[in-house]
Amino acid sequence: MADSTIQKPGAAFDDSENYGSNPSGNRRFSDVLSAVSSSRRHVLRGGLLGAAAGFLAPSMAHAHKGRKDDDDRRGKGHGRRDKLIDFEDVTIAQATADQSMPTISSDYEYQAFIPWGTPIEPGVVAEYAGDPSTRPTPEEAALQVGIGHDGMHFFPERSAHHKYGKGSSCHKGMLAVNHEYGGNQHVLGKPSPTSLTDVRLMQNVMGVSVIAIEKRYRSWEVVASPNTRRITANTPMAFSGPVAGSEYLDNPAGNIPLGTINNCGSGATPWGTYLTCEENFNGYFGTNNPAWSPSASQARYGFAAGGFGYDWHSFDKRFDLGDEDYANECNRFGWIVEIDPYDATQMPVKRTALGRFKHEAIAIGECRNGRIAAYMGDDQADDYCYRYVSDKSWKQAIADGESPLDHGTLYVARFNSDFTGEWLELSIDNPALAGHFASQAELLVNTRLAADIVGATPMDRPEWTTVARDGSVFWTLTNNSGRTAPNAANPQAPNSDGHIIRTKDTDDFLGDSFTWEIFLLASSTRGTPGVFTDPDAAFVDPEGRLFIGTDGGQPDGLQDQVVVLDTSEDDPKPRRLLVGVRNDELTGWAHTPDYRTAFVNVQHPGDGNPALTSFPAPFNGTTIPRDATLIITRKDNGVVGS
């Protein structure tokens, strides 16, 4: 995801992720693609298309009970649709007419919901409504919805007869929302913090909101719940897995682990918990100590004295890279954090077996034997695609008092030129890693370095992953400004438009190999009505509709958008469902169990500049714009995307 606190000359849409920190020299994906056929697409090999019927993303496993007729799936009384995607597209002219507010297909409507500053429960604190003359206090921010809305998931109200939170309510539940970041100017009204109080405000608007919501009549409302909470950069955290209790997390200061930051994409587990992903954690650290220089590990993760300009280190020693008392504080970030949305008494847990890198998102599929496979991207130019496989079925692990996310094997991907690939094991049992790490804990803290050593394939910013009902995994590769050599599969140098890859694991999705294809080159949409670039957020529903949210400068005067593609098509044509406001990003797609209500986030509208938009308020040029969630429904009560 973008981080607008980073400014580089002449790079209006540039992100830190576009600049790689990978010196490994591993064979680049552009080189792999240069070696293959000039065909834009390749059919997946090995007869896998029908082999994956038992491999379901968790939200699909309980929501999809076989293929009923169209009327049952799309609402009684509504005629059969011959097309999987059949809505009126937003035209470029419509989308560019007024970019101070979102533009949605005429077949849909939306409700702007829980903008930054909304009380997490009715009456617990006043709302911050975008008054430019003031900002919330840190104490108020800790009881308000944060900023930088990103990944999210809707957890339906738990039914008594459902064991793992797979309730069927489509009108009431817990909404977990990530808060990735907010710029100093946007949050503080000034370019840099000048006190610890300012830093605490910045820290309290980030993290995660878990809030109870309910549909009453035609609108959704925030309601009271004992499980409502904010999780911020100062919330106590637990660690689990191989790194827990290791020397790599200890500080001489003896401070307890606190906080989660730069919460980007997300995922959900089959047992009903939320997974939030720490991405650009390095940017919150810095130092004023001229004697400090990064270690090899810190350099590989992009730590620098200036950070991203947040300047937390000047007032909060935890984030000072030059303070030896907090030497391992930076190792406490870069993980995936598990949160129980149904029980606010449970401490969030950082699951270290999933590796430490710039986690964009995570998608979990359940295999036929009950084990889980989790797919994760490391969002930086020339970094890698990862998979984790649990040792046991998730139900057995929980029955044994274990977490399926603590006991398993982490792998990194190598893509071959014959449309096959290998999952390379990242453990001290791998002979290729012998002698490089003293323990699995040290390896996982330095996951990127281990992946470099085994020869993983550097990719074009792997971001979101999503698992289709047939077992396909879609990976969004947003762009890579460092690409230098064009080829038939990636004709632009640099790769400013990005692309989407589809993979399938072999051997019941648990083997060490996979097949792959280029599903879509975003550059191929230029000059078409459905043009889009910079694919980022991704979700595929049980019917095979792939929802893509974009993050970058869109062509033809468009702002970031949501497009929908039919994954069964050989030449998928993007259909434009939604376009955002000036300088925003659209991200964090989620659904109710019946797929008739969808949630998507408008992140950093106007980059916080009221001269560009006052969203979600009507444009007036003065009200501070606020990140918010859009709740989307079809006007005919049909499935969203249909």
UniProtKB/TrEMBL annotation:
- Source organism of the structure: Henriciella pelagia
Q: Which residues form a coiled coil?
A: none
Q: Cite the residue spans of the region called Disordered.
A: 1-28, 61-82
Q: Which residue ranges have biased composition labelled Polar residues?
A: 18-27
What is the protein name stated in its UniProt record?
PhoX family phosphatase
InterPro entries linked: PhoX, TAT_signal
